[in-house]
């Protein structure tokens, strides 16, 4: 929970009051609050605290009678003011994440954060990023722990208060709301990913979609197994063959305009991936509950879109959800499936299953909703981790204008992307002797050939594919990103929708 407070920071009687101080290189503290300057004057002079990025200084003003009612005052260094706006945004998120992390260690329940001055950001942007950092940095997943009383690592702040620090109160309120909605959606996506395979199933995706629709008025449609058979969705059905749980195709539709553009989002919802007959190694297989992070990002972003109701754009979201297990009826290497629309595919490796379910969703969604642009997200290939590590999301596309918007959205969210090429030479690698295509293209360029497979189902529609296998969990260490699921791409999608521009022909 986060609230905007008009209360004078000095009179805040909660557990922790937080100020953020830039690094100036001067011998005097750059802060408008005289009590803060007095509190850290000696530390500043001695060089123990200079405002460097990530530095902290904790004091207990009640005991020392420094003019604060709060139990503790924490000062956090911002570092030198960044020249680039996106870097400034990340600077604030990181500092806010540090505040939340420090508060957790102190078992703080109520915290007031005072917005700093002269950060290089507009008032609303500053409040947005501060809210994101506080909420995302406060994240814990302890649903299945039976005793957390003595576990410092699982302590979380119950209520944040944001003080405008003298900035425009109305703009701060608007920015705080944007940051709150985005961060809470990111935390929800983390929750979904942290759920075990027996805690988050295709049916849970469907129920969550219905829940969003029931409270927001957007349309929800669930295509179940019989419906998929009628439509000829051989990709989803084939992957699902080895599982006792039926598949679901969850579709959410938001209409913000009658004549405006439609953006289609597609997220891979593999709620557990054993690899099927092409079984994965046992070591680390427990992490394959995370294989639904693309679906989580899409459906959680739709929750915010449904709440914000952006004008001038329509958004359709599809989440194909299933397990990939090796039951008696499981699809086998060498089998041939027929996707929605009639294209046939030779299954060389059953562990290359994500592209099979996405292909049906892409082909069906494009034919049914005729979107102006499509973005799909998936934990698709291990190859993207080899190429980019856990620091950047792989991006492949047939449209330069769409790429430009997505990259800008990622930079704004502090979730960078890197574009990889596509072309006929890569498509040639997935040619099959017995079917139209095959589901893997050999060892080389695995991330690209996976995208080339998806490209077969989008036609001329502007399309971008985000391979989040390296960033959906174990993402770059940050103060507001925990170990495990990161909630990646929720805020990328929200930034994309909030700042959508009509596409140019590529």
Question: How does the SSE layout of this entry go?
Answer:
Blueprint: E1 2-5, E2 16-22, H1 34-46, E3 56-59, H2 61-64, E4 72-79, H3 85-105, E5 110-114, H4 123-137, E6 159-163, H5 169-194, H6 202-216, E7 219-223, H7 225-231, H8 234-240, E8 248-255, E9 262-267, E10 269-273, H9 293-308, E11 314-324, E12 336-338, E13 344-346, H10 354-369, E14 373-378, H11 383-388, E15 393-397, H12 400-413, E16 417-419, H13 424-427, E17 437-438, H14 446-455, E18 463-467, H15 490-498
Parallel strand pairs: 1-6, 2-4, 2-5, 5-6, 9-11, 9-14, 10-11, 13-17, 14-18, 15-16
Antiparallel strand pairs: 3-4, 7-8, 8-11, 12-13, 15-18
Helix pairs in contact: 3-4, 4-5, 5-9, 6-9, 8-10, 9-15, 10-14, 12-15
Span between N and C termini?
A: 43 Å
| CATH topology-level fold name of the largest domain | Aminopeptidase
The major β-sheet equals:
9 strands, mixed
The total tally of domains equals 2
What CATH architecture of the largest domain do you see?
3-Layer(aba) Sandwich
User: What's the CATH class label of the largest domain?
Assistant: Alpha Beta
| Rg from alpha-carbon coordinates | 24 Å
Strand percentage lies at 15-25%
CATH homologous group name of the largest domain: Zn peptidases
Q: What is the tally of helical segments?
A: 15
Count of beta strands = 18
Structural class of the helices, strands and pairings? Answer: alpha/beta
Which spans have pLDDT < 50 for at least 5 consecutive residues? none
Q: Bin the helical content.
A: 25-40%
Shape: elongated
Mean pLDDT: 94
